[in-house]
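User: Sequence for DUF58 domain-containing protein below. Tokens please.
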Amino acid sequence: MKLTRAGAAYIVITLLLGFAAVNTGNNLLFLVVSALLGFMTVSGVLGWLNIRYLGVAIRLPEEIYDGQETYVTLQMENRKRWLPSFLLRGEVGGGRFDFHSIERRGAETGTVAMTFAGRGRKELGSVMVSSPFPINFFIRNITLPLDAHCVVFPRPNPCGMPGAPADARSRGAARSSGRGYEGEMETIAEYTGVEPLKLVHWRLSARHENLKVKQLTSLADVPVMLDIAQIPGRNIDERLSCAAWIVNRSIKANRPVGLIAGTKVIGPDTSRSHRLKLLTELALHGSH
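Assistant: Structure tokens for DUF58 domain-containing protein:
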């Protein structure tokens, strides 16, 4: 609990009036001091109840990078049966959030900007919640338990992309599971209006009332195998940051990427789940 300037001034005035009442024996002063003390007591009880019976939960994004600001979703629940809670401020992981009011047996959701330092596994074990309610004489606080875990990826640092093979004709020879306009025919589907006319299967369309289009597989670039030991960098963190950048850049360009981390080998792919798997492996490299 922290005493504010307004609270300190209120206490000083109450004490001065109390001394005056004792020295003069003035009944009116005694009544005024009693009212001031009663008001302080009531505000104290309301302030204490305001931050009681609260619960908090947090939802972290799938991708969190070292040193980069990220936004997390936080939900605070008021479990009191009769009273709402007001003017709540919380702090978690260096980020702050505010809720003006939460109805009884209700919940509010907000967004918190947080920055994690260092790669690897991180844990958020508690949230500090404070409130100046009801009249900003005291700022009361309480620590709420929080069970949240995440993996912080290395911060991507732009570096040189792996070179292409000597025979440039081999580029694009690999097939991708994604849809495209240059690969082999995979299936026939209804025309939706967005496909180019060159994909319309005219002969098949003539046998049906609706136009039919060919769905082709997209072409992927030649797979890349990243060996952490071979990536340039002055230290392991620089090499991992470079590798994270290459993984994101390559998969965005539909180029399959694999990883060699010591004795562990992960084959190349272009899916989102595969990208997150590679980034997780880079984040935890050397910390097992």
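The longest strand covers residues 174-190.
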